[in-house]
Amino acid sequence: MPGLETVAWPSAYGEAAKPRMGFFTDTSVCIGCKACEVACKEWNQIPMEIEGFTGKSYDNSVELDANRWRHVAFIEQQLPVDAREGDSLLELAARNGAIEAGVQTYQEGEGIRWLMASDVCKHCTHAACLDVCPTGALFRTEFGTVVVQEDVCNGCGYCVPACPFGVLDQRQDDGRVWKCTLCYDRLKDDKEPACAQACPTNSIQFGEVSELHQRAEHRLAQLQEAGQDKAQLYLADEDDGIGGAGAFFLLLDEPEVYGLPPDPVDTRRDVSEIWAAAALAAGTLAAGLVAAVFGGRR
Length: 298
Known about the structure:
Elements: H1 10-13, E1 21-26, H2 35-44, E2 70-78, H3 89-95, H4 98-101, E3 112-120, H5 128-132, E4 138-140, E5 146-148, H6 159-162, E6 169-170, E7 177-178, H7 184-187, H8 194-198, E8 204-208, H9 209-225, E9 232-234, E10 247-251, H10 271-295
């Protein structure tokens, strides 16, 4: 994938440009421990929030927002049970293996399928948030990541609807936007991001994006050979609607199952065509009005 191999910003940084750094998140080995969430909050000194459950999941942090830059999603799917008329709950549990094996809590056990995935800002190749920012608070670093400068952000909020993933969020007490920086301060000191360092299973892998793609392809092939037919890479294709991303994922099911858009698109991609169409329509309407006014006077 030559377009993702790294320096997509030499004009801005010249010789100071670094290889593009990012995350490869292998959800197949995520155990839902949320160590990444804790490490992110601690290192970046993100304000605490009162946690709670949605009633739909054991996930108690719910989503990415201004005060949560890493979020481990829990997707719990009930596997179909061969129910028969007149069966008691005890008989159903026995047939489903829950009595002998227990309802297992890692990926696919008897009775429940667990899918877990640590979500984060995608650091898009074509980042609409960066393009719509009027103050320059959002900028692309020498590592190819997208960062918000909180001392420059004026809280206009233009970037919030521009993000196709709903990542950006404004903090209620001051109105400014906050999100993952891929630990820019640590990168400058040749350290890996706090979340990747804290991950006990290496589900979150950090490195040069070109190298991470090679790892991801190898891992995908392993899973597919093992019978995971729905396993797929998400945001690893430079020909997708955002030109690929600096943070991409290996999923075990369709993106929608994880609450991710199946075909994300740079929200500014079609703006020029829309304005051109609007201008053409306005010109046609004006010509029609002129013809109606002057034609009616004959």
